[in-house]
Amino acid sequence: MASSSESNTRPIRLADIAKAAGVSHGTASNVFSRPEIVREEVRERVKAAAEAMGYAGPDPKGRLLRAGKVNAIGVATTEPLSYFFDDPFARAMMAGISEACDATGAGIALVSAGNQEKLAWNIQSALVDGFILFCIEGGSRLVELTRERKLPFVALELGFDDDTVSAIGVDNVAGARLAAQHLAELGHRRFAVLALPFADGSTGLVSPEKVRTALYTGTRDRLVGYFEAFSRCGVDTAGIPVYETENDEASTRAGLETIFASAEPPTAILAMSDRIAMVAIEWLAARGMAVPGDVSVVGFDGVPDAALCDPPLTTVAQPIAEIGRRAARTILDFDGTVRRETLGVELVVRASSGPPPKTA
Amino acid sequence: MASSSESNTRPIRLADIAKAAGVSHGTASNVFSRPEIVREEVRERVKAAAEAMGYAGPDPKGRLLRAGKVNAIGVATTEPLSYFFDDPFARAMMAGISEACDATGAGIALVSAGNQEKLAWNIQSALVDGFILFCIEGGSRLVELTRERKLPFVALELGFDDDTVSAIGVDNVAGARLAAQHLAELGHRRFAVLALPFADGSTGLVSPEKVRTALYTGTRDRLVGYFEAFSRCGVDTAGIPVYETENDEASTRAGLETIFASAEPPTAILAMSDRIAMVAIEWLAARGMAVPGDVSVVGFDGVPDAALCDPPLTTVAQPIAEIGRRAARTILDFDGTVRRETLGVELVVRASSGPPPKTA
DNA sequence: ACCAAAATTTGAATCGATCCAACAAAGCTG
DNA sequence: CAGCTTTGTTGGATCGATTCAAATTTTGGT
User: Fold this and answer.
1) Which of A307, B3, B259, B321 has its CA 20 to 30 A from that of A82?
2) Residue of B57, B81, B105 with shortest CB distance to A108
3) Which residues of chain A have pLDDT under 50?
4) What range(s) does the HTH lacI-type domain occupy (chains A, B) (predicted)?
5) Between 3.30.1330.40, 3.40.605.10, 3.40.630.30, 3.40.50.2300, what CATH number should domain A171-320+344-348 receive?
6) How far apart are CA B168 and CA B21, in angstroms?
7) Per-residue model confidence (pLDDT) at position A8
């Protein structure tokens, strides 16, 4: 039944239309991209031919090569793709990025992969005008990979110092100071810190030694902020445990076990992320400890969920959506310069923090 | 300072490297795409030249034209881009899509736009191998736009019948039946339905007339399911109000006002989405009506949030992530055929439904 | 009817790679 | 050493469009 030229035919090209309509391909191209400059009669003829032959319109693949601009920005991470839709912080960030992209009509390409090798390939072959990098972990590798593309890119939550890359972040020291000061002013004297990673793949109580050599400056800065506030408020910093988590449930719980095994457990917990803080609140509730009655908890990030948990979380709010918007604009309006921005944070006092228990 | 050839230079092409290394562009290409077939000495020479000239590696734009495959799937909607990160249903769906894409190393391109015109353009120019369409509203327009691209695409939540387009959906009639039957068996006799749109841009109580001519078959099918169960359980369907909402807070509240203004208010509400159901629960609580003490509420969709609200929502759960996975696979494994799948749903009984109050 | 100005159309060049048939060189075999 | 295989390299063709200077046709004025 099926003759060899029936369904086996390759896609119709603009040149085919031009031939069929008896015009040059230049004119055929104009019919689609600048219709106003071709004579109506010709325009109709070409359009009719296109219609008749089932032409899908100028193929963006071809146009792209000529035009150079993809009109899409890539957002990359080392986490699986679902991270963008699951993680509250990422979602808030994407909302800001989306807003900026919607405003200019740019698209968003999500880039990630199951393994390192595929990640590298996906970054090398992503069709985008620039990248926004979520540097949660393995950030330096992500930056290196992206740098090779020689496209504009901006790092978010960059955990290390490198003045050659554009980055947008927050004032971690000031934010942490705010959190610690808030608790100290409430009267707390016994603290514990649940930290983000100082380096990849390690957890547990950390020594001052480790802090000094911390790979991730974000983590280090927050710790510096906490301790600055402590000294300023006359808190004895000697016995304050700092437990390094991996910002997940398992390591946070392990940290809590360790911390509360102490003879003198803390009355206040400084968590370096809302994620950690919320796990802590849940853990404390399960142990029958009231928040903030027995233990106060202060988070960091200000994700929307923090306002919804029980009790609502006191936290250091980053302008997450604004960071996202600026990151997108940095790519969209790229001018060839390195741009490093540090935004301010804000202490949002909710119900998870209060005075220490009287008995303490 | 800056000589004219300093930073003003245009990007380095593969051909430049070839020239510099004294090989043909064919060989230069091989160095990057099939290094094993190039003699080591030559390979190193070319790589060195590339390094020296700051070559970014083969430009995907060029490769794409030749290769034809983008290795990314587009996900499109008429909502703003942030919809993908805000809406619980969309997020659950994206998680499924992400999973399938991660498994094959494919990327995801989010396609949307502020206005209709830009949407059309963005669909025409999206660099993807196929589309997954979120047909929430304006679904038919989205389908038409996409059809023109002549790429594989699959419609999700397709609100209308069209056997020529691939679609993945659920058995709405059976699901609705389950929900209504559950409430009838609990003893309820006075119902109200908060419906999804029957057509674009209208809200309010709907007549049987309108139902028959409903634009969206999904809405119609759910209603059919509800009423089938009612008759089967001997419920008098005469006075049951069916209020068409726009699946948002405002119209749902308006519907509730209308419904509860009645002399004989319902003891059970059938909501066609979890979104609507959760707004209803909130509204009832604010009015001092206990759920399920005074009024039972059953939703539809089974979004993750439904398990977390207070009280947890009884709902008809769709296999959302599975739909997403299948949609992605439909594009990734496209074989030129139209594929229409209908998946089963499941009633998940939680705390928002119970027997009607005794006094009623 | 004729010419300049304006409006259209043409076709070669370009974007940046990959593919492949043909060719060249080197290695083996009898 | 002719003949054959293996291995590596070449350069033209191709993917599908856009762009722009030059050629051509129309239009308008007199």
Assistant:
1) A307
2) B81
3) 1-7, 360
4) 12-67
5) 3.40.50.2300
6) 53
7) 54
Which DSSP symbol is given to B12? P
Q: How far is CA B99 from the centre of its chain?
A: 15
Q: What CATH number was assigned to the domain covering residues A14-52?
A: 1.10.260
Residues A254, A271: Cα–Cα separation, whole Å: 14
Residues 126-185 of A with CB under 8 A from B: 126-127, 148-151
Q: Which of B181, B152, B155 is nearest to B167 (CA)?
A: B155
Q: Where are the domains of chain B?
A: 13-47, 69-169, 171-319+343-348
Angle between helices A217-232 and A172-185 (to 10 degrees): 40
B11, B57, B82 ranked by CB distance to A124: nearest? B57
Any long-range contacts for A61-64 (C-beta under 8 Å, 24+ apart)?
A61/B64, A61/B65, A61/B68, A61/B70, A61/B127, A62/A14, A62/B65, A63/B125, A64/A127, A64/B61, A64/B64, A64/B65, A64/B127
The answer to whether B69-169 and B171-319+343-348 have equal CATH topology is: yes
Cβ contact B131:B284 at 8 Å: no
pLDDT tens-digit series, residues B60-93? 999 999 999 999 999 999 999 999 999 999 999 9
Q: How far apart are CA A186 and CA A204, in angstroms?
A: 28
The distance from CA A120 to its chain's CA centroid, rounded to whole angstroms, is 18
Upper half-sphere CA count for residue B86 (Cβ side, 13 Å): 12
CATH (residue range B171-319+343-348): 3.40.50.2300
**In this structure, is the CB of residue B33 within 7 Å of any atom belonging to strand D?**
no
User: Which class would CATH give B69-169?
Assistant: alpha beta
pLDDT tens readout for residues B287-304 = 999 999 999 999 999 999
- Separation of CA B117 and C1' D28 in angstroms? 38
Tokens of A23: 């015009």
Helices B60-67 and A60-67, packing angle to 10 deg: 150
Asked whether A307 and A320 are in contact (CB, 8 A), the reply is no
CA B67 – C1' C28 distance (Å)? Answer: 38
Within 10 Å of residue B54's Cβ, how many Cβ atoms?
A: 10
Helix (H, G, I), strand (E, B) or coil at B65: helix
Best to test chain A binding among B71, B127, B310 (most A CBs inside 10 Å): B127
Measured distance CA(A204)–CA(A243) in Å, rounded: 5
Highest mean pLDDT among A199-213, B133-147, B306-320: B306-320
Residue type, A355: P
